[in-house]
């Protein structure tokens, strides 16, 4: 009888232990499976993961209208972002001027324009890319993004390639982009009002029409969310135009393009930046907000300058639109059947 009670006690102990273990497992929270672009962190560190949120080249990119705010690390971006409205990894805009020369020799008028930048800004670093060095620049910096790299290198129309190049350079290095036919009148250090110095990631100026950003001169920090949006927008437009004509982007020509300004130029840049601002700010942002502004206006982290700043000659020198910073001469070397200079 004593042996029976002993075995019965062991059986009861085993049953109780099993029930206790099962109950403990049931109370534990489920494990978290981390996927690409996910982050488990405090709200204070939420922006630190934005550089990791990259779409691999074999994944489809989300349409611009469906993209969520860049500050959310769970939403992958088209290209990695280092500077956005709530994430600043660089305190100032690089003091470097980027320009691109065509295959033809730079004439005396353009040489004078180039020297104006260095005369007004003696410490300005300066680099002029050629066709070959521009291609090498893109190969070097976008090797991990074959969609961008291959489409850029395959573009046969010089102006389309030049428009995309400026955005790619501003994305990688930031600084100041200016076309060769632009004269600088005021020091770059004076372009951003003091109250916006620590809040500005990108500086754009209105064209003479007063409702579109000029693309001949742009100033920005590297890897901003807005330049990423412009690159994505332009790439989508190029692909759509090629598809409309049942060709590849490598087969595009000027007869297939209704309007370069709308496809890759200032209108495309304006639409993309305004769309991105609206997405990030969560409120309607459109041309009505920028039309004919009379003083520098900050939209989140985008500083918009009135049209006197970048389009003084074209605007008839309006007296109530701030200082004249640069002057565009509209040399228009791209306005021909080839869409720009081609190698001889």
UniProtKB/TrEMBL annotation:
Recorded GO CC terms: mannan polymerase complex
Acetylation found in the keyword field: no
A molecular function (GO) term: alpha-1,6-mannosyltransferase activity
Keywords from the UniProt entry: Signal
Signal peptide annotation: 1-26
Keyword Signal: yes
Pfam (any one): Gly_transf_sug
GO biological process, one term: protein N-linked glycosylation
UniProt family annotation: Belongs to the glycosyltransferase 32 family.
Protein name: Uncharacterized protein
């Amino acid at each position: 009888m004593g042996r029976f009670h002993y075995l019965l006690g062991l059986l009861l102990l085993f049953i109780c232990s099993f029930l206790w273990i099962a109950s403990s497992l049931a109370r534990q929270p489920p494990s978290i499976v981390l996927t690409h672009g996910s982050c488990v962190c405090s709200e204070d560190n939420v922006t630190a993961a934005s550089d990791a949120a990259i779409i691999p080249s074999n994944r489809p990119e989300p349409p611009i209208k469906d993209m969520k705010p860049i500050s959310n690390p769970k939403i992958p971006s088209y290209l990695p972002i280092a500077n956005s409205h709530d994430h600043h990894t660089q305190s100032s805009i690089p003091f470097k001027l980027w320009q691109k020369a065509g295959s033809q020799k730079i004439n005396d008028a353009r040489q004078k324009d180039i020297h104006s930048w260095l005369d007004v800004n003696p410490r300005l670093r300066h680099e002029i890319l050629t066709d070959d060095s521009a291609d090498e620049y893109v190969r070097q910096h976008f090797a991990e993004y074959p969609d961008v790299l291959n489409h850029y290198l395959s573009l046969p129309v010089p102006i389309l390639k030049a428009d995309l190049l400026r955005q790619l350079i501003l994305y990688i290095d930031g600084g100041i982009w200016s076309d060769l036919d632009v004269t600088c009148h005021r020091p770059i250090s004076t372009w951003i009002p003091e109250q916006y110095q620590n809040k500005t990631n990108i500086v754009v100026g209105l064209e003479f029409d007063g409702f579109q950003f000029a693309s001949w001169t742009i100033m920005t920090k590297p890897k901003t969310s807005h330049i990423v949006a412009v690159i994505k927008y332009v790439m989508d437009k190029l692909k759509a135009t090629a598809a409309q004509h049942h060709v590849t982007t490598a087969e595009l020509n000027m007869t297939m393009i209704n309007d370069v300004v709308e496809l890759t130029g200032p209108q495309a840049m304006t639409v993309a930046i305004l769309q991105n601002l609206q997405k990030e700010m969560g409120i309607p942002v459109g041309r009505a907000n920028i039309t004919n502004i009379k003083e520098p206006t900050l939209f989140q982290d985008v500083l918009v300058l009135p049209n006197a700043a970048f389009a003084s000659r074209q605007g008839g020198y309006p007296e109530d639109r701030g200082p004249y910073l640069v002057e565009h001469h509209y040399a228009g070397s791209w306005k021909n059947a080839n869409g720009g200079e081609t190698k001889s």
